[in-house]
Design a protein that fits this description.
The complex is a heterotrimer of chains A (288), B (239) and C (352).
Chain A lengths: L1 H31 L6 H17 L4 H23 L8 H23 L12 E4 L2 E4 H23 L1 H11 L1 H6 L4 H27 L6 H15 L3 H22 L2 H18 L4 H4 L6
Antiparallel strand pairs in A: 1-2
Chain B lengths: L5 E10 L2 E11 L4 E5 L6 H8 L7 E6 L2 E2 L5 H6 L2 E4 L11 H12 L2 H15 L14 H13 L5 E5 L7 H14 L4 E5 L3 H7 L2 E6 L2 E7 H5 L2 H12 L1
Parallel strand pairs in B: 3-8, 3-9, 6-7, 7-8
Antiparallel strand pairs in B: 1-2, 1-4, 4-5, 9-10
Helix pairs in contact in B: 3-4, 3-5, 4-5
Chain C lengths: L7 H23 L2 H26 L8 H18 L2 H25 L4 H20 L7 E2 L2 E2 L22 H24 L1 H11 L1 H6 L4 H26 L9 H14 L5 H20 L7 H15 L4 H17 L7 H6 L5
Antiparallel strand pairs in C: 1-2
The chains are: A mainly alpha (288), B alpha/beta (239), C mainly alpha (352).
InterPro entries (chain A): ABC_transp_permease, BCAA_transport_permease
Family (chain A): Belongs to the binding-protein-dependent transport system permease family. LivHM subfamily.
Subcellular location (chain A): Cell membrane
């Protein structure tokens, strides 16, 4: 009984974790059809914000929910202004440039903070179930992710911003001809993606710690989730996270986290062989 | 088995709630030249794409040489002997005219024969003087001719042409008409076209599309003088 | 139009022959050990750059994780050599293993008809996961036959290729082997692109739909060229294993990034460009290392700036730039002969 409960909780955590760290990437991919290779570094910057702010006495939740998204969102704005907007419409070049930005950010953070690991303690203690225990903080992250997804859905469904976003995703030329300013949409998308990644990076910092090159360790999971999900932001991320997080959670429990990632990749490759445009291409066609 | 080269049986194509083509059949014998015409949005391009295997019909079946092509890859259909010219000229822009035609010929013929065939086709179509030019720098009409050369180089049994005369000069259109008539002696041809003077020049049998269905079908002179056809399609032009 | 006697293409060919002659005949007799050791590594990386230049620049296949096959080739060589003893067989088998791995991954990607973005991401993820996987194999339970995988330390006992009598080659011999391998790989790519197969590969990069409509099964051609490039990357891995030893860094994101930078800086759609850029940038970072200029010369920062600037300012890379500059200079020299049209110089690149 304990065993079942713990596996269920573990799976929920691993699914929520995937949704959380992939959300920013999924927003940019869904709207712009490019993969942001600097995604890992946006997460890393969010993590550094949380760690440094906490070390200076700012409460963790303030740095997670306010400081990190704002700061990393600003970084996103700068990157968009300096680099991305010049490559408007050139998908491949946009991705390559974001790869360059990723290296620059790793370099800058290494210069500023050194190449060493730092971290903050995980708050909230832990929950014991029989012989096993799970951190309350991890359950808190599941709740936060749930709220994020619901909020995202409501925004997409009912707000003006969501309407513009859905129109752009369906047919960008049509949206442009109806008077939607594509450049403004792209900028807002990039900044939103960055801010979401900042938030996620800050939230997982107490568990994962931070180091300038930590982005690379999230990259594989996020990339797999987003391309398996396909371009529908919410439905895609949710369905792919559900499937892959399920596989990952069980594999983590049965074997090691690294073998879980290998299984994740294998699952994704087979999935893409069957559904080349991602899960949402076949099912949930009309979803966001 | 059937003695038709190409047979379309009751083709229907739906996009979401829209029925683009409704229950259209067509059969073509060897050596026929058949034209598909109709106003914009009549469904002729959709029908064309089902014939060429680019779209899979919602219902119905296309038989080429007695074999169903439903769900087969474009490459396989091409190897079975169907040559397809798309609406927008689809060529290898960074390669020379000769390389373009050669790539088409060498797929079907051994290299030495392919070289001869390549020269022959370029000469017939009148692009020999461009052989060493990159296709990317040519005019739209010339690219159409290059694509046509790549389509006929492998000696297909059936040629499908989607608006081949678009973007050509009057002189080029005349030459194209003569060429198609000549081609129809050795293989079958289906042409989708807008240009009525071009149709008059080449057509022997015509199918007129309107609102996704066949309006009239028959020999060219009969169809072109049909009052219903004049009403839906030629009205403006004749008036 | 009559081709002039001196063209940028011919100048380039002469320069390449001179460079190859210098590397093969002058450097070994000079006895400069540092040059010989780093020259070997440069050549191994040069072959890796060629493999990406071939599939990306000519086949249009985005493989951001070409390092996966580089590492697989290296590890396969080390493991096989430790187990079977015969290093030549191990080297040949390792190249086959890398090519087979590429074919297996390629099957899933090309038969699924995945788009560019997906291809790039899947290959990159493959190399990232191999990196993480190999890194955690330090325990003694992780061994294949007699070969311990060694985790993040790699396999320092990677055997060196033997000569005919079964003695390990000297570094000078390895150097010559690497240079010859690079030259042969370059010639192989050139010949491959000149064949009918190679022309189809370029054609399907140009226009996949037309290639299909002409009756070519584009998946097969992509699979073919992807496997050949995988084998080339494997060869680079085997040589690298002989210059240094195999370690997880062969798979690392840093190696993938470097490789990408070489190809972009050298020029997509050229073969010599990426090799040149590889040599120049490796030499450049070695030189930066000697400067002792403090933390600001972080290698990631430098590489990121180079990549971003090239994408923004010089997306065609340096070799095409050098060629058109050279053509213009030659045309000016030949005056009053008419100047070459700039557009032509750009499109004409591939034929050279």
């Amino acid at each position: 009984m304990d065993y079942v409960a713990i596996i269920l909780l573990q799976t929920a955590i691993s699914i929520a974790n995937l949704v959380l760290i992939s959300a920013g990437l999924a927003v940019i991919f869904g709207m712009m059809r490019v993969i942001n290779f600097a995604h890992g570094e946006f997460l890393m910057l969010g993590g550094y914000t949380a760690v440094i702010a906490t070390q200076h006495g700012v409460p963790l939740l303030v740095s997670c929910f306010i400081l990190a998204p704002v700061l990393v969102g600003l970084v996103g704005l700068v990157v968009e202004y300096l680099v991305i907007r010049h490559l408007y419409g050139r998908l491949l070049d946009t991705m390559l440039a974001s790869w360059g930005v990723s290296l620059i950010l790793i370099g800058l953070v290494t210069v500023a903070f050194g190449n060493s690991v730092s971290g903050i303690s995980t708050p909230f203690g832990s929950l014991s179930i029989g012989r096993f225990s799970i951190g309350f903080y991890e359950l808190f992250l599941v709740a936060v992710t749930l709220v994020m997804v619901i909020a995202g859905y409501l925004v997409m469904r009912y707000s003006r911003v969501g309407l513009i976003a859905r129109a752009t995703m369906q047919d960008r030329d049509m949206a442009a001809s109806l008077g939607v300013n594509q450049r403004a949409v792209y900028r807002a998308t990039f900044v939103t993606g960055a801010a979401l990644s900042g938030l996620a990076g800050a939230l997982i910092a107490p568990i994962a710690g931070v180091v300038p090159t930590i982005g690379a360790s999230y990259l594989a999971k996020c990339f797999i989730t987003v391309i398996s999900g396909g371009p529908a932001i919410i439905a895609g991320t949710l369905s792919a996270s559900g499937l892959l997080g399920g596989v990952g959670g069980i594999m983590t429990f049965l074997a090691t986290p690294v073998l879980a990632e290998v299984a994740l990749l294998a699952a994704a490759v087979v999935l893409l062989r069957v559904l080349p445009q991602g899960i949402t291409s076949k099912f949930f066609r009309r979803s966001q | 088995m059937t003695d038709y080269l190409l047979e379309a049986r009751n083709l229907t194509m739906r996009f979401g709630g829209v029925v683009a083509v409704r229950d259209v059949s067509l059969s073509l014998r060897e050596g026929e030249l058949h034209c598909l015409i109709g106003p914009n949005g009549a469904g002729k391009s959709t029908f064309f794409r089902m014939l060429s295997g680019q779209y899979r019909p919602t219902s119905g079946e296309v038989l080429f040489r007695g074999q169903s092509i439903n769900g087969q890859s474009s490459a396989k259909i091409a190897r079975a002997g169907m040559g397809i010219k798309t609406q927008v000229p689809s060529v290898f822009n960074a390669m020379t005219v000769r390389e373009n035609v050669m790539l088409a010929a060498v797929r079907a013929l051994p290299p030495n024969l392919a070289r001869r065939r390549c020269d022959e086709v370029m000469k017939r179509i009148g692009i020999s003087h461009l052989a060493a030019e990159k296709v990317g720098i040519l005019a739209h009409g010339q690219r159409q001719l290059v694509e046509l050369a790549t389509v006929i180089a492998p000696r297909p049994a059936l040629i499908l042409l989607d608006e081949p005369a678009a973007g050509m000069t009057g002189e080029e259109v005349e030459g194209l008409g003569d060429l198609l008539v000549e081609l129809a002696r050795s293989c079958s041809v289906i042409v989708v076209e807008h240009d009525m003077s071009f149709i008059r020049r080449i057509a022997r049998s015509i199918t007129v599309f309107n609102q996704g269905s066949v309006l009239v079908e028959g020999p060219a002179d009969q169809v072109l003088s049909d009052q219903r056809v004049r009403d839906v399609y030629l009205g403006r032009e004749v008036a | 139009m009559k081709t002039p006697l001196v063209t940028s293409g011919r100048l380039g060919a002469v320069a390449m022959i001179l460079a190859a002659a210098w590397a093969l005949f002058i450097v070994p007799s000079g006895g400069d050990m540092t040059l010989i050791l780093s020259g070997s590594i440069y050549c191994a990386f040069g072959i890796l750059a060629l493999s990406l230049a071939l599939i990306w620049g000519f086949g249009g296949i985005l493989s951001f994780g070409q390092t996966a096959f580089f590492g697989i080739g290296g590890y396969a060589y080390a493991v096989l050599a430790l187990n079977i003893g015969n290093t030549t067989t191990a080297a040949l088998l390792a190249i086959l293993v890398a090519a087979a791995m590429a074919a297996a991954i390629g099957y899933f990607m090309f038969w699924g008809r995945l788009g560019d973005v997906y291809l790039g991401v899947i290959t990159l993820v493959l190399s990232l996961i191999l990196y993480r996987f190999i890194n955690q194999t330090s325990g003694s339970e992780w061994k294949i036959g007699k070969a311990p995988l060694g985790g993040f330390n790699g396999i320092p006992s990677t055997p060196i290729l033997n000569d005919l009598d079964g003695n390990p080659l000297w570094p000078e011999d390895i150097y010559v082997l690497c240079v010859v391998a690079l030259i042969l790989s370059y010639i192989l790519c050139r010949l491959l692109l000149a064949t009918y197969f190679g022309r189809v590969v370029v054609a399907l990069r140009e226009n996949e739909l037309r290639a299909e409509l002409l009756g070519y099964d584009t998946r097969l051609y992509k699979l073919g060229v992807f496997s050949i490039a995988g084998g080339l990357a494997g060869l680079a891995g085997v040589l690298f294993a002989n210059c240094v030893f195999v370690s997880p860094n062969m798979f690392s994101l840093t190696t993938s990034s470097q490789l990408l930078v070489w190809v972009i800086v050298g020029g997509l759609g050229t073969l010599a460009g990426p090799v040149m850029a590889c040599f120049l940038l490796l030499a450049f970072s070695a030189w930066l290392g000697t400067l002792n200029a403090g933390v600001w010369l972080d290698p990631n920062l430098v590489m990121g700036l180079v990549l971003t600037l090239f994408v923004l300012v010089l997306p065609k890379g340096i070799l095409p730039l050098m060629r058109s500059g050279c053509d213009r200079a030659l045309a000016a020299f030949r005056r009053p002969a008419p100047a070459a049209e700039p557009g032509e110089a750009m499109i004409g690149e591939e034929a050279r």
